[in-house]
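[Q] Does anyone have a clean structure-token version of this?
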Amino acid sequence: MCDRQQDEWLIARIRDAVRRSEHRPCFVGFLDEREAMVARRAAQECGCGSWRLWGGHEESERVVFGAFPDYLSPEPEAFPVVAITAEYRPCDELTHRDFLGAFLAAGVQRATLGDILPGEGRCVLFVREENASFFLTQIEKVGRVGVTLHAGYEEPLPQGKGFALFEGVIASARLDCVVAAATRRSREKSARMITAGFVSHNHEPAVSVSAEVREGDRLSIRGCGRYVIDRLGPVTKKGRIGIAGRKYL
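[A] Here you go.
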């Protein structure tokens, strides 16, 4: 299914959830970052007065869309999202990929699974409430590593996949300049990547090398990874712009 068809299908689900939310909350997801953007637009366009995106913690990447009756406040506690902690030996150093692969192999649907935040000796994951019992009773190994699962988690949350920091200076806040700084490639090669359709800007396919990038914007670059732009500025004495950001690991 192409992106446009996926978007149309998701928009239809959001509109249906909004229609059905007159008397009770209705939920869709988990959604990835791009799907969350589509859901947000759909909710605004159909005039939903009470809705929220929530994934179990304040910085969730994967979230559930919730549409609520006008008389209910869309609080996080109302969402069917629960946290589960998997504990294991710190020396085993399990990764996000290890956990996701094990869950999918066990038959878990990606849409029922939120963020997976691995750390030293533990991993916190967020799941749909109706699927929690499956994880707690059926998941005993991740790969060849034994894990013990229990409901809830202790603060602070693990850092999850983590980030690699980057910084530099660029001629302007054009997309081709920012892509070059993030990937450490030439501006010319970055421009070719954009025109070839390899770059998404804030979850939308990039169409212009001269598009303006702002602080907080997100880039996805095929073959390179995903990035967050944290800072643009200050301007140097030579008129160039400082840039700093993070690459998802």
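[Q] Thanks! Anything notable?
[A] The radius of gyration is 20 Å.
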